[in-house]
Recover the amino acids of this structure.
């Protein structure tokens, strides 16, 4: 059944064609960029897309909600910031040290809470995210509190990465890597196990899948994606505040995933692109910005509950009703 | 020492009563529709802001209170009709995003209709504090506790003694069966949303003189109300009240004795602990009386 659904189990050729198309997009996009502002927005899109590709593995494929992923993003960002700014670590060393640290934390948190389902899981992840954000905003000795802290630029072996253009290519490369890894994970036995337990957890267990282990693993993977994107974002912007760790940012991330289309890696990228650019357009509406953003969020979910990419895919593919599980 | 303890207890009970009202709203909607309404906190905001605005316009307080509650109830009705009903049967995450979108929309509208300033409502009956067992009690605290008690009694009468209340209960137990015996499930849904919106607004008006109100008070109050609902057992009316009180007291005690910086985190630490060790909450298993 999954063969017919867009974004689901696809032949190996698709696994190369997708990233190749994305690579082409990333390579050609700068031709349309008039100035540095375009690069700046593109980098933000890329960083959000990396987080969303990871989050989509959890939400879209495994069917588990998280309303706290901004917490992992924040841990990555502040981890890198504190190690480099306060302890003088090399940025790459900090990234390599922080990411497994966040993975370990995600493992410890995920173990008890992933037994929960539906609203209860949503609430537990929400609680986790809010606690992380309160800790970051309160421990001002380390994090600078609500005022934030500055972060040294990313430098590798004496070469310092500066300017939107250089960052565009680095983030583009990272996004490609993220997408390629995600596509491979989905096709691996773990990926198949995740899709099975999304369909029916009992059914998956009967078929011999250790569902607790599979869920925990994808939770950790998605936390690693968010943490790595957070580390990169901290070095890119050079200054971080707790605003990126809030409940609202967690919601933004989940909305990007669902808006783009659950269980579709490219849907997550598209969702991140549209919803990161939306506020840039909405500044035209000035004080109506929040109202329009809320209305767009509600409208798309009411009229396009399956998300952008799967809805468009079925529209063009003309294969009859798609079988993306709810 | 005991005076201090009594003081924290009074503060905790006052805040807890507000959490209890918000948690009741969550439970009523959850029972009727299996939806967690993340816009619940915004009804608290609308109640507070609307009553402050009306009083500023020269409307007498009692009338302002009634109008503010009615306005919130209408918003609840609109939310059900235009956002939740069309998405009937959508997965949990979709419904979560719809109600969060609604809360962002309401917050945005509040900044347009009113402003981004912090407002205070005048206390209902003076500001002269009373001395009760060594603790200083604001008259407004008594209002909060008294009205909450009255609301809880009224609700238990409504669900236990009236046909409409029983219809709501029946729908929460079995939607299809309720429909088969002639209950209009659509009307029950509308009723449950406007009822919990009204409850939220009442909470918002009651605390507006103590903790003040502004366009963004709804987020934290909503989340803590949800934590209270889970603590008491999601879907249980008595649980919601108990959960709210326990949460309020725990928060005020830990702010007093442990750390005031982490006051807001306490609710979520308790929430995680409950979810991990006893996901059914304090009263979740006893299905006998569900609001």
């Amino acid at each position: 059944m999954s063969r017919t659904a867009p974004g689901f189990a696809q032949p190996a050729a698709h696994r190369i064609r997708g990233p190749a198309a994305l690579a082409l997009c990333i390579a050609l996009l700068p031709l349309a960029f008039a100035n540095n502002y375009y690069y700046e927005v593109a980098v933000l899109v890329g960083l959000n897309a990396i987080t969303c590709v990871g989050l989509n593995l959890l939400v879209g494929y495994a069917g588990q909600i998280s309303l706290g992923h901004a917490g992992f993003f924040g841990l990555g960002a502040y981890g890198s910031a504190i190690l480099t700014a306060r302890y003088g670590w090399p940025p790459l060393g900090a990234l390599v040290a922080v990411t497994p640290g966040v993975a370990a934390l995600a493992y410890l948190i995920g173990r008890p809470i992933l037994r929960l389902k539906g609203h209860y899981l949503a609430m537990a992840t929400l609680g986790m995210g809010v606690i992380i954000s309160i800790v970051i905003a309160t421990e001002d000795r380390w994090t600078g509190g609500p005022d934030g802290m500055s972060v040294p630029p990313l430098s590798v072996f004496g070469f310092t990465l500066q300017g939107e253009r250089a960052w565009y290519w680095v983030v583009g490369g990272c996004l490609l890597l993220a997408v390629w890894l995600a596509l491979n994970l989905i096709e691996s036995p773990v990926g198949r196990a995740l899709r099975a337990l999304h369909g029916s957890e009992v059914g998956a267990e009967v078929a011999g899948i250790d569902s607790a282990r599979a869920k925990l693993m994808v939770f950790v993977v998605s936390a690693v994606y968010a943490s790595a994107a957070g580390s990169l974002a901290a070095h890119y912007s050079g200054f971080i505040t707790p605003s990126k760790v809030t409940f609202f940012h967690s919601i933004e991330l989940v909305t990007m995933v669902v808006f783009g289309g659950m269980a579709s890696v490219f849907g997550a990228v598209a969702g991140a692109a549209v919803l990161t650019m939306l506020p840039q357009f909405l500044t035209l509406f000035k004080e109506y910005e929040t109202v329009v953003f809320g209305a767009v969020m509600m409208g798309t979910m009411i009229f396009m509950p399956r998300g952008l990419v799967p809805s468009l895919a079925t529209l063009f593919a003309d294969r009859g009703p798609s079988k993306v599980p709810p | 020492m005991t005076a201090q303890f009594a003081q924290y207890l009074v503060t905790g009970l006052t805040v807890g009563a507000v959490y209890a009202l918000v948690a009741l709203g969550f439970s009523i909607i959850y029972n009727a529709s299996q939806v967690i309404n993340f816009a619940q906190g915004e009804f608290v905001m609308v109640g507070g802001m609307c009553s402050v605005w009306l009083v500023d316009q020269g409307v007498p307080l009692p009338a302002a209170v009634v109008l503010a509650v009615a306005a919130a109830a209408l918003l609840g009705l609109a939310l059900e009709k235009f956002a939740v009903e069309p998405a009937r049967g959508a997965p949990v995450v979709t419904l979560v995003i719809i109600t969060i979108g609604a809360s962002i929309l309401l917050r945005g509208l509040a900044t347009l209709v009113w402003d981004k300033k912090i407002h205070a409502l005048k206390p209902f009956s003076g500001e002269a504090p009373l001395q009760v067992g060594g603790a200083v009690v604001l008259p407004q605290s008594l209002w909060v506790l008294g009205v909450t008690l009255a609301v809880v009694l009224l609700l238990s009468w409504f669900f236990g003694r009236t046909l409409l209340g029983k219809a709501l209960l029946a729908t929460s137990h079995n939607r299809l069966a309720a429909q088969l015996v002639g209950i209009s499930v659509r009307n029950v849904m509308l009723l449950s949303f406007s009822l919990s919106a009204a409850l939220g607004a009442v909470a918002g008006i009651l605390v507006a003189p103590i903790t003040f109100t502004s366009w963004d008070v709804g987020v934290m109050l909503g989340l803590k109300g949800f934590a209270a609902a889970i603590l008491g057992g999601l879907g249980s009316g008595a649980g919601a009240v108990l959960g709210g009180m326990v949460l309020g007291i725990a928060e005020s005690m830990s702010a007093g004795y442990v750390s005031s910086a982490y006051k807001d985190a306490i609710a979520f630490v308790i929430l995680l602990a409950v979810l991990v060790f006893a996901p059914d909450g304090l009263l979740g298993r006893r299905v006998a009386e569900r609001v």
